[in-house]
Structures are given as C-alpha cells and as structure tokens.
C-alpha cells in the first residue's frame, strides 16, 4: 500500500501542510501550531480541552 501525503489545512493559521497518513489520527494543525498549542496547554491547564491533538 502506498503512503501518499495528504494535504490538510491548519485550523489555526489556515496554512496547508502535508501529513503522511500512517497514523490513526488526523492532525488538524501544522507543526508550528501544534507546538504552540501544546505549550499553551501546558501553561494554562485550567483551559478546557477542546481538541486532542497529541499522539
Ligand atoms: Zn498552523
């Protein structure tokens, strides 16, 4: 089976990015926003968890 990159539009910055669809979950955010969101979440963990974007 071929692993094709899939183009996803980041829900944070709107930028298109590629993922290789080899994992079960589909990312909603690009690398940059994922890192940022993770840091924000760590900093503010009283914030309600809206999206699970972790692996
Ligand atoms: Zn982004």
Features:
1 helix; two-stranded antiparallel ribbon; elongated
Rounded to the nearest angstrom, the distance between the terminal CA atoms is 23 Å
The total of helices stands at: 1
SSE order, as H and E? EEH
Helix content: 10-25%
| SS class | alpha+beta
Q: Strand sequence of the main sheet, in spatial order?
A: 1-2
Molecular shape? elongated
The molecules bound to the chains, other than polymers, are: zinc ion
Give the amount of beta strand, in percent: 15-25%
How many beta-strand segments? 2
Average pLDDT taken over every residue: 80
Query: What is the rounded Rg?
Result: 13 Å
What are the segments in which pLDDT stays under 50 over at least 5 consecutive residues? none
The main sheet comes to: 2 strands, antiparallel
Can you give me a brief rundown of this structure?
The chain is 24% helix and 18% strand. It is of the alpha+beta class and 55 residues long.
Plain-language structure description:
With 55 residues, the protein is α+β, with helices and mostly antiparallel strands. 24% of the residues lie in helices and 18% in strands. The chain has 1 helix and 2 strands; from the N terminus they run E-E-H. It has one helix at 31-43; strands spanning 5-9, 16-20. A two-stranded antiparallel sheet has the order 1-2. The two termini are 23 Å apart. The mean pLDDT is 80. It binds zinc ion. Zinc ion is lined by residues 10, 12-13, 15, 29-30, 32-33.
What's the topology here?
Elements (H helix, E strand, L loop, with lengths): L4 E5 L6 E5 L10 H13 L12
Antiparallel strand pairs: 1-2
The protein binds zinc ion (ZN).
């Amino acid at each position: 089976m071929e692993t094709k990159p899939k183009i996803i539009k980041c829900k944070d910055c709107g930028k298109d990015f590629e993922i290789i669809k080899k994992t079960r979950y589909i990312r909603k955010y690009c690398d940059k926003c994922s890192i940022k969101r993770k840091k924000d979440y760590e900093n503010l963990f009283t914030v309600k968890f809206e999206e699970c974007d972790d692996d």
